[in-house]
Specification:
Layout (H helix, E strand, L loop, with lengths): L1 H9 L1 H4 L13 E4 L8 E7 L7 E10 L4 E4 L4 E6 L7 E5 L6 E7 L5 E6 L5 E6 L7 E3 L11 E6 L5 E8 L8 E7 L7 E2 L12 E3 L5 E3 L2 E8 L5 E7 L7 E3 L4 E5 L5 E8 L2 E7 L7 E7 L2 E7 L6 E6 L8 E5 L7 E2 L7 E6 L5 E5 L9 E4 L5 H5 L6 E5 L6 E20 L4 E18 L6 E9 L2 E9 L1
Antiparallel strand pairs: 1-30, 2-3, 3-4, 3-5, 5-6, 7-8, 8-9, 9-10, 11-12, 12-13, 13-14, 15-17, 16-17, 17-18, 18-19, 20-21, 21-22, 22-23, 24-25, 25-26, 26-27, 28-29, 29-30, 31-32, 32-33, 32-34, 34-35
């Protein structure tokens, strides 16, 4: 199984999330430096069910270059957590045998969380803490005995009910390997394996992906990939907390679901573009959206309650720009909403206004964590159309563009000027008012089509214009 660990490291650029950005005028993300034992990189971040003020992340150490990176062995995994909505972060370590490698972390409160992973000898671990990470206890030591199983994630809905998913393995009654999925209803003291009849049979060379899963309510999804070709194969789904499963031939991973029905995923990477797939029926069927171009995908999030897509693009692992791109129409059009300076990862949102991210391993400062502070850009994520009268004059424009905004209720506005490729050209803010005015200098811009997006916490509205 040593080869699988190497593959997990070599395919990280496709499987990790790590590049959010912020604006110098009004930051999208507020950075915080937590208490960590080393300069490390964020691997998995999760928000606690039912309490979006609590988030935990597990981190590992990497040898990073502009074009590649590799896992560096450590004595223990590193974690950090917040229990006050991202204002403060504390950290510690998770013991998982010699040279551990993380799969995921899952909190249910500020004190209780689970983590999963394997060590250098391919021994799988499920670890639980009930004192905020000061101490960790290993659970289910008799499970996942085969090195080929590889524990991909553990997830708990509350302090009692959870699931653990591993790669195909035989059982005491089944000589044919099937996905090693267990459920518990007593906090992990006892586990029962899901019957093979309830899980689609494994395909040749098919495996799960560590930390690559999504949960909304009682719904669970995880992707699989072909170990021989390194291509995504299927998406497994359950709507009863893992008791029964079905699979679709989606050939996609990096899943993100906004609710029980609507989700997105990344398909193949071809000719400098990513396939983007969308489901509106909980993953039963998937349709292709326009491909994403402009760099490697570092993060992909379908924002809850809005179905807006937030994605991050990079052309280097160590140097910006790290472009923070937003689509309000399921990938038909994109706009840049940050200045590309912050190297963050693992973005997770519990609502349009509550989100967290962890930093990919920095080179010149202590590791940071992030909370989303995008007001008044809340409107961009709200999914609502801004009720306002917006006039752009002149249109077509030459040297200057004048913007007039009129609303019935006072609001603070953010104005984003983007080119036809979605790149952010300029940003302005207007203080709280019912009648706002702004002006953009267009003299240095080449002729072509542009868009101006006006956003408040109530919603957003985009107008197009032409620069002659």
């Amino acid at each position: 199984m040593k080869s699988k660990l190497n593959i997990a490291c070599s395919t990280l650029p496709l499987l990790l999330l790590f590049c959010l950005t912020a604006s110098s005028l009004r930051a999208q993300w507020q950075a915080y430096t937590p208490a960590l034992s080393d300069t490390v990189g964020s691997f998995d971040l999760r928000i606690a069910h039912g309490n979006d003020q609590v988030a935990w992340a597990v981190l590992m150490k990497y040898n990073v270059t502009p074009t590649a990176y590799a896992w560096v062995a450590m004595d223990s995994l590193v974690f950090t957590k917040t229990s006050d909505g991202g204002n403060t972060w504390t950290g510690g370590t998770i013991p998982m045998g010699p040279e551990p490698y993380a799969s995921n972390i899952c909190p249910v409160s500020a004190n209780t969380a689970w983590a999963s992973g394997i060590d250098v000898d391919y021994v799988s671990y499920i670890m639980r803490t009930d004192d905020g990470g000061q101490t960790w206890q290993r659970q289910f030591e008799d499970g996942y005995a085969a090195a080929t199983s590889y524990l991909n994630f553990v997830h708990f809905w509350d302090a009692q009910n959870g699931i653990a998913m591993g790669d195909p393995a035989v059982s005491d009654t089944d000589t044919v390997p099937f996905y090693e999925i267990y459920r518990t209803s007593d906090g992990g003291a006892n586990w029962s394996r899901v019957n093979s009849a309830n899980i689609p049979a494994a395909l040749p060379n098919e495996y799960g992906s560590g930390g690559n899963y999504c949960v909304v309510g009682d719904n669970v999804w995880f992707p699989t990939f072909d170990f021989a070709t390194f291509e995504w194969t299927r998406v497994f789904r359950s709507n009863d907390r893992g008791l029964t499963w079905a699979a679709s031939d989606a050939q996609a991973g990096d899943l993100s679901f906004a609710d029980a029905l609507h989700g997105i995923a990344l398909g193949a990477y071809n000719n400098s573009s990513y396939e983007l797939k969308y489901t509106a029926d909980g993953g039963v069927t998937w349709t292709n959206l326009p491909p994403i171009t402009g760099g490697q995908i570092s993060s992909l999030v379908l924002i809850p309650q809005s179905h807006y897509i937030l994605t991050m693009l990079r052309t280097s692992n160590t140097a910006g720009p790290f472009r923070n791109m937003l689509s309000t129409d399921l990938g038909q059009n994109w706009m840049e909403i940050g200045d590309g300076t912050e190297l963050a990862s693992n973005a997770k949102f519990s609502s349009p206004t509550v989100g967290y991210a962890g930093e990919w391993q920095p080179a010149d400062h202590p590791t940071r964590m992030y909370k989303y502070t995008g007001s008044p850009l809340t409107g961009l994520f709200s999914g609502q159309t801004l009720e306002a009268e917006i006039n752009l004059t002149p249109n077509p424009a030459t040297d200057q563009l004048r913007v007039q905004i009129e609303t019935s209720e006072p609001a603070e506005f953010t104005l984003l000027l983007n080119d036809a490729q979605g790149r952010l050209i300029a940003r302005k803010t207007i203080e709280k008012t019912t009648q706002g005015n702004a002006q953009f200098d267009l003299r240095t811009l080449p002729p072509g089509a542009y868009s101006l997006t006006v956003s408040s916490e109530k919603g957003c509205l985009t107008k197009k214009f032409v620069k002659q």
